[in-house]
Write a structure and sequence with these properties.
single chain, about 350 residues, alpha/beta, Aldehyde Dehydrogenase, Chain A, domain 1, Aldehyde Dehydrogenase, Chain A, domain 2, 2 domains, five-stranded parallel β-sheet, 12 helices, acyl-CoA dehydrogenase activity, CoA_reduct_LuxC
Length: about 350
Amino acid sequence: MSNLSKSYLVQILAELGRQLLHPDQTLEQIIASESNYNAWFTPESVQQAVTAAGNSLTKESLEQWLNAYNFTPHQPKKVGLILAGNIPLVGFHDVLCVLVSGNIALIKASSQDARLIKYVLQLLATIEPKIADQYQFIERLEGFDAVIATGSNNTSRYFDYYFGKVPNIIRKNRNSIALLTGNETTEQLHLLGKDVFDYYGLGCRNVSKVLVPKDYNFIPFFEAIESYHPIGNHHKYHNNYDYNKAIYLVNRDKHLDNGFLLVKEDERLTSPLAVLFYEEYDDLAAAQAWLEQHSQNIQCVVSVANVHINNQVVDFGQSQQPALWDYADGIDTLQFLSNL
């Protein structure tokens, strides 16, 4: 595909984006039935992921993304991809990067999210049949020249051991943080609900913790997110809510509770499902220092505060709407692939 011109790449990927925004019957069936394979992948969540992918593949965005790179024709390298499966289509961007860089993707899909990504790539291969030679789904990773693997802090140790001898990107656990000043509008706090609840909070771009000024009043936040209460009807989410609530009550842990979200003061970054951690700060300089100190474990920061940090900062409601150039962990995947 590196031998395809950038303008042609833009053309075929924009057409894929159009088809994702206007799903055919097969895609509609996949969207409707994914929850049979993974209870977290409700029709609403899968539809959201498909729409987000479609919206990112516009002619303008694709040109802005690809024009920042120089692709030279080369002998394609085989790039092993170990995809996560925590939210629908979560590995699509890595596959896209391998394809546009002119390399071959050896895809080890997660059992949690194998059907959707296969069909999206079939759609792309229908638009441009040459794409079919550029990827294959595999059960066992072998014969690779480079690896991009996404997992937990635990699995990353194994990945380092197995793939350390080839060029690699190995991703670990990350979480996203919101920095609040206390001056947010009701609308901003309502949008923060999307950052917390989209995909049930299972993504690394979901907000798992908020930094708040001393003596912050959570009542306006709870009022602003009240319309998200149907999330509590999802049985797996509700089980997590009940379980964590029971633990906090038995341990007499101080916490706030609105019936579908528990809010607890905690120094950790990663909150359990149905829980939002918070930590207080003295002033914005202290908050900025905290974010810099934890930057290696943060995916993005949701805030409109005037802070200067290394992490990607996004507006309220935007954490799960990454652009094509918003790379996971701040590592430029396309640059890495172009340099192989």
